[in-house]
Amino acid sequence: MRRVIEDLIEKRKTRRDELKASLNDLAGALSKPGLLKKNGAEIQAKVSRFQEALENFVTAQDKEWDAYANNHSTTVFKSLEWKIDKLEAEYSNLKTLLVHFAQLESKLDRLLESFAGRPTPEAAAELRAVKEQLSPFQYADFERRFRGSSEMITGRLARYLPLFSAGGEVLDIGCGRGEFLALLQESGRRPLGLDLSDSMLEEARERGLACVKADALDFLKARPDASLDGVFSSQVIEHFEPGYLRRVIAECFRVLRPGAALLLETINPLSLFALSRIYFLDPTHQRPLHPEYMRYLLENSGFDAVEILYGAEPGEEKLAAADPAAPQALPFNENVDRLNRLLFAPSEYAAKGVR
């Protein structure tokens, strides 16, 4: 493709030189005394030559631009295809590793059962600790590699902080390493985190954050009515089964005080980039959650002022627009915009409702 473009550039230069020579000839002919009477045919011929050279030049320039545009689009899509292929290979390797861990966990379960009543409590506790570390549902190492550093997550979640009342008690479902808990605590709110991962809870506790190991639905059922000033969750609900998610949202409505907010962030399935690069990376995700479905769930559970809050778009990955001054730039850029809306919509959104 590059050679084709280079050939077209050379042809355009040739046409430009022809146009320049034609203009020089025309200027010379028009400068002769009495030209209009004596050399009418010559002038007409030179004008025709000029017109033909000009048309050839414009045609060559248009072809060059079309080649540039086609090459740009082809390069972008080949790059995107390569990234998806690479992601699929990484996903396959990760899934194999998780299956291996699950097999080890099963073997440890059988080992613990066979030792029932015989090993010391200390030995049994150590075996259970090893089993917990091998569990495929431990996400500390996974998040370090794929979700991002604690600093990056903190910066991304900070935009949600003003949505919760100052000084109130806010529950973080699936608190992980405690990034949002730390933001709540530093701002004078009273945070409490839930998670099922011992390793993540240990990291959060080392930072002096209040958190417990508990199932979200069981914990909420045990809370009194109107006893929380906010409930938050970041990229956890896509792990829930549909029926479980509905019950969690219903319990959140019950335990929140009037005027308190529920905010549930998840991966945006309207972004093909987010689906391929984020959602399908984690084999424990149950199913993508459409933002309008989440709006319906919150409204159907009694929440008011329900809205969908979209995150930032992945700007670095977007397809580049052409120079607006270039020929045919307007229709080309309109198509680029359509593709960007389909491929690179915001990677996450949050469904927010008020009790």
Mean pLDDT: 78
Name given to the CATH architecture of the largest domain: 3-Layer(aba) Sandwich
Estimated share of beta-strand residues: 5-15%
Rough outline: elongated
CATH superfamily of the largest domain: Vaccinia Virus protein VP39
CATH topology of the largest domain: Rossmann fold
| H/E topology pattern | HHHHHHEHEHEHEHEHHEHE
Quickly count the domains.
Answer: 3
What is the radius of gyration?
32 Å
Q: Tally the helices.
A: 13
Q: Strand order of the main beta sheet, please?
A: 3-2-1-4-5-7-6
Question: What is the element layout, followed by pairings?
Answer:
Blueprint (H helix, E strand, L loop, with lengths): L1 H29 L4 H4 L1 H75 L6 H14 L5 H8 L2 H8 L11 E5 L5 H8 L3 E6 L2 H9 L4 E3 L2 H7 L5 E7 L7 H14 E12 L4 H6 L13 H10 L3 E7 L18 H15 L4 E7 L1
Parallel strand pairs: 1-2, 1-4, 2-3, 4-5
Antiparallel strand pairs: 5-7, 6-7
Helix pairs in contact: 1-3, 3-4, 9-10
What does this structure look like?
- This protein has three domains: 2-81; 90-134; 140-354, Rossmann fold.
- The mean pLDDT is 78.
- The protein has helices at 2-30, 35-38, 40-114, 121-134, 140-147, 150-157, 179-186, 198-206, 216-222, 242-255, 272-277, 291-300, 329-343, and strands spanning 169-173, 190-195, 211-213, 228-234, 256-267, 304-310, 348-354.
- With 355 residues, the protein is an alpha/beta fold.
- A seven-stranded mixed sheet has the order 3-2-1-4-5-7-6, sandwiched between helices.
